[in-house]
């Protein structure tokens, strides 16, 4: 199996639905250690994406869909999530290039580019209690999964979920949570959790 533009569109639609369903949960996580707006901001952004998807041609490439997500999130989502996820999707679209379909190696390139974009934009590393703590294990798991794209997506999703849980005992070193010091311990990073949500939707769409 390969991932074409139609799959990419279905993935984005699934993300929008899941963000809408879980926005209160994401906002509650952010209320504990951030600005209490992560779920609402992401929901607004992905609902805006849904409103623009129909403007794409039926034969739109994965890159075209990813680029639409990027530009829409950057223009509609406030806080840190807009620039970070916007950069992730933009870099992912650049890695996808002009391919009509993504096989497993191309998927790894796309995920790696998304992660690297977040790292460059947010200046965070693994262990800083950010979404990077979900993205990096996801990239590593997909890279190790071989040439089966379904297996790569499933591995990435599982690793991202584990990475999100693993942020709970960490002290934050980046973002609003970093001002809390030890008080952030015991709380899951909302960006890592939304990363796990996004990658779970990708795996479930295959």
UniProtKB/TrEMBL annotation:
A single GO cellular-component term on record: cytosol
GO molecular function list: glycerone kinase activity
Full protein name: DhaL domain-containing protein
Transferase listed as a keyword: yes
Keyword Nucleotide-binding: no
Domain DhaL, residue spans: 6-204
Gene Ontology biological-process annotations: glycerol catabolic process
Gene3D superfamilies in the cross-refs: 1.25.40.340
SMART domains linked: Dak2 (SM01120)
Keywords attached to this entry: Kinase, Transferase
């Amino acid at each position: 199996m390969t991932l074409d533009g139609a799959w990419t569109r279905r993935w984005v639609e699934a993300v929008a639905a899941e963000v809408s369903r879980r926005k209160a949960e994401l906002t509650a996580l952010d209320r504990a250690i951030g600005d209490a707006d992560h779920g609402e901001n992401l929901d607004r952004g992905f609902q805006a994406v849904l409103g623009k998807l129909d403007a794409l041609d039926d034969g739109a490439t994965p890159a075209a869909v990813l680029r639409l997500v990027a530009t829409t999130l950057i223009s509609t989502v406030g806080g840190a999530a807009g620039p970070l996820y916007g950069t992730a999707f933009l870099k992912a679209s650049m890695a996808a290039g002009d391919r009509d379909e993504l096989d497993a190696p191309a998927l790894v390139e796309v995920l790696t580019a998304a992660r690297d974009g977040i790292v460059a934009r947010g200046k965070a590393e693994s262990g800083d209690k950010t979404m990077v703590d979900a993205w990096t294990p996801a990239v590593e798991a997909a890279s190790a999964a071989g040439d089966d794209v379904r297996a790569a997506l499933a591995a990435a999703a599982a690793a991202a979920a584990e990475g999100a849980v693993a942020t709970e005992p960490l002290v934050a070193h980046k973002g609003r949570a970093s001002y809390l010091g030890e008080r952030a311990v015991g709380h899951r990073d909302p960006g890592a959790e939304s990363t796990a949500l996004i990658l779970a939707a990708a795996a479930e769409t295959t």
